[in-house]
Amino acid sequence: MDLSPGELQFLSIPDILRESISIPRRAARTFYFITLILIFPLSFAILAHSLFTHPILRQLEDHPTYDPTETRHQWTRLLVFQFCYLIFLFAFSLLSTAAVVFTVASLYTSKPVSFSSTMSAIPKVLKRLFITFLWVSLLMIIYNAVFLSFLILLIIAIDTQSALLVLFCMLVIFLLFLVVHVYITALWHLASVVSVLEPLYGFAAMKKSYELLKGKTRMAGVLVFGYLAICAAIGSVFGVVVVHGGDRYGVFTRIVVGGFLVGVLVIVNLVGLLVQSVFYYVCKSYHHQEIDKIALHDHLGGYLGEYVPLKSSIQMENMDV
């Protein structure tokens, strides 16, 4: 990023997107390998998941069997596949985040960048991201419990034909998804960047993320909602054409459309990771928290086993610009 810290706070959403898209050109070879080895498998798994689970679900629905052994076998297959998918998704999501955030920060501090150095730093970065993810997961469990409670209440309201209660539940469910879910996602993404670039992780990273989002919550909401909407649109088209389009579309059409959509999702995920990295610097600049590039350079070097001076923080907080 060629902009000064003072200029970053004035970036609009289009400016952030342009700045994010321009970053890979500064380390094309590194981002090529990150995209090919980490982001492509993640994107492929997200879309291909329904392609592999659909036949199992259709077999359970269209060919019910009274044989408990066969039914148990089908459900076991489904659950094992789901478990492996979640582990794969979780692992590559953290790996992709760690690689992109570390590489962008290295470029920001003029630190030499290579794919090998990025991969060497990932093991230590991954541990911090994992702890932060556990805290975010706890928050998501609470959110899902509340969401499920209102969903059950909505079903009861429909069953009892209580129009007022139905309207209230629908409004709460809509707000929970549109506001709370989007906010938690933004909090998680920013906390992930904090976990890599600052000596904070877990609950401390979430608290820092909460503080950084103040004043930029609307912008974060638009960015996250836009990302989720694009991913949902890609998933919907993939489901209609590739997964369920066997009777209407030929094999060649489905392969071409599927490959194209995987490619689009790869680009969307890469840009999304770059945006969350740039957005961190925008938030820091907005709160007048200038980043000490020398300290950040040393902090990143610590992941590679380099000498790290005794500093308790990588930033000089609350400086006047």
TrEMBL record:
The chain crosses the membrane at residues 31-52, 79-108, 129-158, 164-197, 218-243, 255-283. GO terms for cellular component: membrane. Keywords: Membrane, Transmembrane, Transmembrane helix. This is Uncharacterized protein. It comes from Citrus sinensis (Sweet orange).
